[in-house]
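Practice problem 4.
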């Protein structure tokens, strides 16, 4: 039973390649020639000559035409021993480069006529349903269609409808799903813009606060603080923005970002040279206090870690390099 079921499905898929071949020649043109095909009980693959990617519309038209031929339920007409010359005259599709004997087996389903030794259905209606699942290039001028038929195609359609139903539930709009998703995308992009704006405002605010706490000592303007930011990007913005505004800067920032400690050190380039300071080395050593590691350049470096409780100690440790 299992084997005959597999044979049946293979015959469905193989016969569908005949219908597909004829449909492609009708929709894309008679330059379409079969370059190869692979058929299993699960699916079919059909390679053919064509110069470019098929449009969504061409794919839909091809699929619709094959399904129309299936519904026409054309019976298999088999001619076991037709002279090759006669087969050519009636326009039977043959594989280029294939050696054929003097008499050939011709299989006809409605308008599709091919020389073929494969196993076919008794009538096209048995195929049930045909769905193209992919269309791609496999070589210059050669395209590949992968498709499914019968139960597999039915299952595929059911799955797609189930996905659509779930989306309808999620967006709570049974009638205008596309409109709802479009407005969600628009809303999301507006919210992102707003969040970015407020993020920038926050950075400005924190920066103003930090600048009011500068301690100037021995030719160094020192800023050391634990700050409240949402992400590492805000810390970086803060550090680079302060570097541009404060001369002789030695900046140490600590932050707890989603439960993870973060340490940032920024040093004005002239101090790096004159005082032989190295932000990379400083974060590596101070980073131990937050049970982490990091690195960077001599003027800017960051470290991430595991121990939020060590942030204050890490800041103190970093400051010890200029004391
Ligand atoms: Zn065949």
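Answer key:
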């Amino acid at each position: 039973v299992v084997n005959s079921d597999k044979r049946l499905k293979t015959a469905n898929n193989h016969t569908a390649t005949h219908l597909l071949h004829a449909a492609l020649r009708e929709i894309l043109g008679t330059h379409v020639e079969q370059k190869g095909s692979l058929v299993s009980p699960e699916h079919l693959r059909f390679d053919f000559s064509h110069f470019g990617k098929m449009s969504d519309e061409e794919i839909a038209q091809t699929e619709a035409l094959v399904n129309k031929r299936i519904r026409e339920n054309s019976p298999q007409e088999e001619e076991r021993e037709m002279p090759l010359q006669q087969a050519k005259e009636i326009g039977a599709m043959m594989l280029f480069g294939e050696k054929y004997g003097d008499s050939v087996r011709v299989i006809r389903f409605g308008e599709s006529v091919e020389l073929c030794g494969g196993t076919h259905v008794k009538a096209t209606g048995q195929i049930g349903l045909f769905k193209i699942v992919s269309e791609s290039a496999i070589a210059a001028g050669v395209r590949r269609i992968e498709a499914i038929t019968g139960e597999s195609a039915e299952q595929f359609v059911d799955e797609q409808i189930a996905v659509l139903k779930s989306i309808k539930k999620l967006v709570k709009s049974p009638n205008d799903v596309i409109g709802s998703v479009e407005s969600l995308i628009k809303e999301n992009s507006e919210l992102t813009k707003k969040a970015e704006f407020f993020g920038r405002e926050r950075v400005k605010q924190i920066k103003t606060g930090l600048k009011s706490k500068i301690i100037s000592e021995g030719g160094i303007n020192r800023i050391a603080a634990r700050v409240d930011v949402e992400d590492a990007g805000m810390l970086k913005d803060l550090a680079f923005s302060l570097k541009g505004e404060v001369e002789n800067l030695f900046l140490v920032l600590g932050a707890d970002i989603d439960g993870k400690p973060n340490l940032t050190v920024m040093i004005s380039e002239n101090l790096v040279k004159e005082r032989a300071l190295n932000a990379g080395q400083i974060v590596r050593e101070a980073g131990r206090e937050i049970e982490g590691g990091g690195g960077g350049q001599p003027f800017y470096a960051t470290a991430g870690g595991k121990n939020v409780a060590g942030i204050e100690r890490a800041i103190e440790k970093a400051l010890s390099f200029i004391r």
